[in-house]
Amino acid sequence: MYTLDELFEISPYALEREQKHRILTDIVKNLSLVHRANCMEYRRLLGTFHMDPATVDSYEQLMMIPVRLFKEYELCSVDRKEIFKTMTSSGTSGQRVSKIFLDRKTSANQTKALVKTMEDFLGKKRRPMLILDTKAVIKNRSLFSARGAGILGFSMLGYDTTYALNENMQLDYSVVKAFLEKHQGEDLFLFGFTYIIWKHFYKELLNDGKTLNISNGILLHGGGFKKLLSEAVDNDAYKRCLEEVCGLQHIYNYYGMVEQTGSIYIECECGHLHASNFSDVIIRNPKDFSICPMGEKGMIELVSVLPTSYPGHVILTEDEGVILGEDDCPCGRKGKYFKILGRIRNAEIRGCSDTYERP
Amino acid sequence: MRDLNVKYLVGGPIGASRPLPPYDGRVCNFLAELSRALQRDRRTALYPDLLSFAFFCRKANIMKLKKEFEDGRVRLGKGLAFHIAPSNVPVNCAFTYVFGLLAGNANIVRVPSGEPRQIILLCDIMRAMLADEKYNDIWDRTAFITYGHDEAVNDALSARADVRVIWGGNETISKIRQSPIKPRCTEITFADRYSFALIAPEAVADADDDELRRLAERFYNDTYLMDQNACSTPHLIIWFSEGGEKAKVGKQRFWEAVCQTAEKYDLADIKVSDKYVMLCRYAIELEDIESVQRFENLLYVVTLQELPDIITRLRGRFGLFFQYDIRQLGELARHIDETVQTCTCYGVDQEAVRNFAVNHGLRGIDRVVPVGSALDIGVIWDGYDIVRQMSRIIG
């Protein structure tokens, strides 16, 4: 029986299909048993569906928790006294947000997995870090938004963490220039959210007619391209534009969600999102939730070995994607690699609901 | 009315118009021609709901309704009817207008802000017809309007109305009720309702394959066709039976046939997601689930060991149903409150169901109809005799 500690000993993209399947099944199946014993809602779900995790022979057979349930219930598998931070998804006001309960163990494992995974891209040596966001977003520590949590989580990977935007979300040239001068010649790490970087960093540089030289940096960004679709900006255009204004050549997108912080899917040099040892991605056919073969699009299920304080180890997202391959990406990383196609579309729904649409 | 910030889709500001007697010849003739015009227009074929409305307005049906209506008393329309139509059953705009017209009233119909395409089409066809002088009396009594969230309009029209008809959503009803009406104004409200089906499993077991296919098709029309989202759509299937092997066979046959029929349903990914979330929610919250049957993602059937006190919380969507066995109708009595509207039946004596409601003094169940007729709207709806309610008796 494999454990998480053993997994931490292995290089993050080293496991091949069969071995990974064995290890993940051991760990994730065990997580299901732990959550069944400790989370009332999860226990009821398994009971209703007559599903016994002890009898499955693959993590692919475990009950998927739809991500929306984290918005509707406070799903927690440890005593509330053990919770030391609660993360929330960033939703606009009025929207319900996911609540994710973390104890020290889960939180530490998330950080550990993140560091381990990122080392594969950044190397072991820590780099000076420039965050393309404002410090204001992390000031309220009591409730962590996904944005704040992401920033704090990734800050562990660098040193001399510096924020490029001021409180008003404006690019602070003096701060950025000072940072770049101070670390001249060093390899830098930049982090931010896809849309914020575009709007408050790229667009500002463009409007001000300025350029920066950050060619010795690696930029990691996530959060999705949804808001950029209206400007017809895709991943390639994004990279090209950023390179033009600041010389960045190493730009990596990542996919991940607050429900599974720590196990993120990073885009490799070939432009593919990769599952690491700590997680897996399964594409489900919406017709019957059967597993889609490679190349066929469907709903994205995410499996993570990390969540112990809440039952988020097997979740069904509302994103659509497609598996591109497994163990054979030219970048050399093992595991599945895939592409995100966006959110599942809103359908027009009929019936007698209210005459008055709320504004 | 001229100052109001509204848009006229057909008709114009309604002045003082004299009420007509119910089923007035001018109205009946107009409806007969409207029916023909709708059926002649090729664009109507795009909207099955508009077609069924056209079918409703055909001469033979209106004459039949007229005959059923006449009881020897002298009646007259009340005057001006103000209708607030529902947004998501677009064709009800048309029905509520016709009911008001048949009763002898002038009608202002508020079309929902989405301006559903079939209603725009209906208005186009009506506008062309009403240009003819022979329909001046109808023109004077017709206004389809749209406006935003404008309380001034609600207030002004409510203050003038002799009848106010508010189509559903409890929220809409309380919102519109903030606008006062005249002391003599009749108000008809269609609130949020709940419906269920009552089926004898033995009858399903006995049905031959053709009959089974027809039954499944009719059930599909009652449910999936409107995303299981209409007030009269069943959410709960009550199996009325002594039990035994045959009943078991009947139930299984039924769901398999429904699942087969539902193959044609447009199960968009977002609906799959919504439905799965809903199933999980029930799994967490309902105490008495015996089992969950999943026919792929097309059909989820939740079998209950006990009915909750308030059955109206058992609501499915996109093909999610609850089922429960009873031996006696009496077992249902304490679960039926005033929210319960339609009971669709198969293999069950409908008269017995009506008697059950009367004998137990139930507050709910306004309609008992065969499976397949859940969505068929008529002049008797939601417990109201709508045309009579919208007219007055001169005794």
Summarize this, please?
The complex is a heterodimer of chains A (359) and B (395). Chain A is an alpha/beta fold and 359 residues long. Helix content of chain A is 30%, strand content 25%.
Notes on the structure:
The complex is a heterodimer of chains A (359) and B (395). By secondary structure, chain A is an alpha/beta fold. Chain A has a single domain, classed as 3-Layer(aba) Sandwich (Rossmann fold), CATH 3.40.50. Chain A has nine helices and 15 strands. Chain A has helices at 4-8, 17-38, 40-48, 69-72, 104-122, 146-155, 173-182, 194-208, 235-246; strands at residues 65-66, 83-88, 99-103, 127-134, 143-145, 158-165, 188-193, 217-222, 250-255, 265-267, 273-274, 279-284, 298-304, 314-326, 336-343. In chain A, the strands form two sheets. In chain A, strands 1, 4, 6, 7, 8, 9, 10, 11, 12, 13, 14 and 15 form a twelve-stranded mixed sheet that branches. In chain A, strands 3-2-5 form a three-stranded mixed sheet. In chain A, helix 2 (17-38) crosses helix 3 (40-48) and helix 8 (194-208) crosses helix 9. Chain B has two domains: 7-192, Aldehyde Dehydrogenase, Chain A, domain 1 (3-Layer(aba) Sandwich); 194-370, Aldehyde Dehydrogenase, Chain A, domain 2 (3-Layer(aba) Sandwich), CATH 3.40.309.10. In chain B, the strands form four sheets. A seven-stranded mixed sheet of chain B has the order 10-11-12-9-8-13-14, sandwiched between helices. A six-stranded mixed sheet of chain B has the order 1-5-4-3-6-7, sandwiched between helices. In chain B, strands 2-17 form a two-stranded antiparallel ribbon. With 395 residues, chain B is an alpha/beta fold. Helix content of chain B is 38%, strand content 22%. The mean pLDDT of chain B is 94. Chain B has helices at 25-40, 48-56, 59-69, 92-103, 117-130, 136-139, 151-160, 170-176, 201-206, 209-222, 245-261, 269-285, 350-359, 386-389, and strands at 7-11, 74-77, 80-84, 106-110, 142-146, 163-167, 186-190, 194-199, 234-240, 289-295, 299-304, 320-326, 340-346, 367-370, 380-381, 384-385, 391-394. The interface between A and B is large, with 35 and 45 residues.
